[in-house]
Design goal:
The protein has 179 residues and is α/β, with parallel strands linked by helices. It has one domain: 3 Solenoid (UDP N-Acetylglucosamine Acyltransferase, domain 1), CATH 2.160.10. The chain contains two helices and 19 strands. The chain has a seven-stranded mixed β-sheet with strand order 2-5-8-13-16-18-19. Strands 1-4-7-12-15 form a five-stranded parallel β-sheet, with helices on one face. A hairpin with a 4-residue loop joins β18 and β19.
Length: 179
């Protein structure tokens, strides 16, 4: 029972950290206390929900929008110059409905450089989002997405291709100052 209280306090601290108005203070706490591997120049907006932050790596120039849920229980790697829009959900574990006991199953998720995960999309366990790929708003990704592919729908399917010359930007350079 004591362990359950300790875990509860740990996640309460994370929730409070997510509400801090200072990005720099939030990032320092996440790196120093919670072990999040957040490269310098990456931006993690507030009101996030992190599971096992010590197993999450976020690369330089990446922006993670408001109210995102990032699950690091099986490992989550987010590359450089990735744009993760608000309310995106990335899961590395889920229940296996086919097995007795409803056990957890899953695998690590990788989001490669220059990918864009648009608003309210969901990435399921074991998926790799290729370099420069785009996941449309509201899509549910159940399988790997090839580099430069644009996917949308439920489940996500390829709807277009992105030109390679479009991968010349850093999302963190375009932050809109908060008033």
């Amino acid at each position: 029972m004591l362990r359950a209280y300790a875990v509860g306090l740990y996640y309460l601290g994370l929730r409070l950290t997510a509400s801090l108005p200072s990005m720099h203070l939030r990032n320092a706490i996440l790196r120093g206390i919670y072990g999040l591997k957040l490269d310098r120049g990456a931006v993690l907006m507030g009101r996030f929900d992190l599971r096992r932050p010590q197993r999450i790596r976020i690369g330089r120039g990446t922006v993670v929008g408001d109210r995102c849920e990032l699950d690091g229980r099986e490992g989550l790697t987010i590359g450089q110059n990735v744009n993760i829009s608000s309310e995106v959900k990335i899961y590395t574990l889920q229940h296996d409905y086919r097995l007795p006991g409803f056990p957890n199953s899953g695998g690590p998720v990788t989001v490669e450089d220059y990918a864009w995960l648009s608003t309210r999309c969901t990435i399921l366990p074991g998926v790799t989002i290729g370099r420069g790929a785009v996941v449309a708003a509201g899509a549910v990704v159940t399988k790997d997405v090839a580099p430069l592919s644009v996917v949308g729908g439920i489940p996500a399917t390829v709807i277009a291709q992105r030109p390679p010359e479009a991968l010349d930007y850093c999302p963190a350079d375009y932050r809109i100052p908060m008033l």
